[in-house]
Amino acid sequence: MTPDRIIRTFVDFYRERGHLPLPESSLVRPPDDPVLFTTSGMHPLTPYLEGRPHPLGRRLANVQRCLRTTDLDEVGDRTHLTVFQMLGSWSLGDYDPPQSLRWGYQLLREGFGIAPDRLYATVFGGDEQVGPDLPALETWRDLGVPVELTQRENWWSNGPTGPCGPDSEIYVWTGDSPPSGTPGTDGRWLEVWNHVQMRYHRHDDGRLEPLRRPNVDTGMGLERLEMVLRGHGSVFEGDAFAPWVRAVTALWHPDESSLRRVCDHLRSSVVVVGDGVRPANTGRGYVLRRLLRRTLTILWRGDPTRTLSDLPDEPFADTLDRFRQTANVTGVRLLLQDEEERFRGLLRRGRRVISRYRSRAPLTGADYRYLHDTHGLPRDLVDGLLAEAT
Ligand code: SER
Hints:
Elements (H helix, E strand, L loop, with lengths): L2 H13 L4 E2 L24 H4 L9 E9 L15 E9 L5 H15 L7 E6 L9 H10 L3 E4 L4 E3 L4 E12 L15 E14 L5 E14 H9 L11 H11 L3 H19 L8 H20 L11 H9 L6 H27 L9 H11 L3 H11 L1
Parallel strand pairs: 1-2, 4-5
Antiparallel strand pairs: 2-3, 3-9, 4-7, 6-7, 7-8, 8-9
Helix pairs in contact: 3-4, 6-7, 6-9, 7-8, 7-9, 7-10, 8-10, 10-12
The protein binds serine (SER).
């Protein structure tokens, strides 16, 4: 199944069950949102999960581009990505969580053809504030899906305050041998789909207040689903990464983990720029800058003479197209190339300056401040140059 077909299958399944397609949001959140980027499909729906009536009704579904900087250090393994696509469905105070689980099971089995013995579910086992999720437990038992109970892993929130609640996660077996263990004991069980009961609002003081209308919010990573459906060893074997892997490998020959990080960061940068973000020293622009600098640091270790301008148009165009973005390929490329030039210049100057500091390590807070304010060298770059020099 190609990613396009997966998206169509998902959206059609929910449309047949009365869910209207929810228009996708930009990765860039409006100024009144404390979060820089859209981190999940539910994020733009927060006011509606808190009780405001949604103009499209109570059943919604979509695919939403998301960005998670929290996963940045895990990128390079089999499954973590900075920017990814999330398939989502919502009941805004409409049907109950067991219904959502039953539909989820049906879609995975009949729509995507996953064998029943490759499925495992986890369910909230209860804590001092909220009891165990018995309806979910019963539903999975009825469906014949094995269940593991947990506490913290089965509680979802989008931050310290706001809508939250217990969740039930669906895992798919990705090992070569027959399934064994549980999601908690064997890493070959891969989490693909989370069904969250948005039933509470958490206040500043930690208090949980039941929402007037309980909701269901589900989210499933497109790239992970493609990986399990096609039997790939990692998300980077998927269609959306093929043009990046081809182009980067031909030019720089990085090792597997570096290749994954570079492909993730370049693809993410294109999507972020496609949504109008420009490199900067703060906020969203700084996330973009870091992604590019991490990429270039890896690539130049392989071959410092090559530049991003040596990449073909194909991966840029393919990514913008897959993320339904209308930005112009040449414009995006020029922006990344400008940033690359800027970084080269900064490194050239930085190496000269840092050579004078080598004997003074470890640097003090005042040194870092001076290097930043006078020479424009951020702390992580200074540390990198010092490490390079020793
Ligand atoms: N909000 C949940 C998640 O991001 C389900 O959509 O996993």
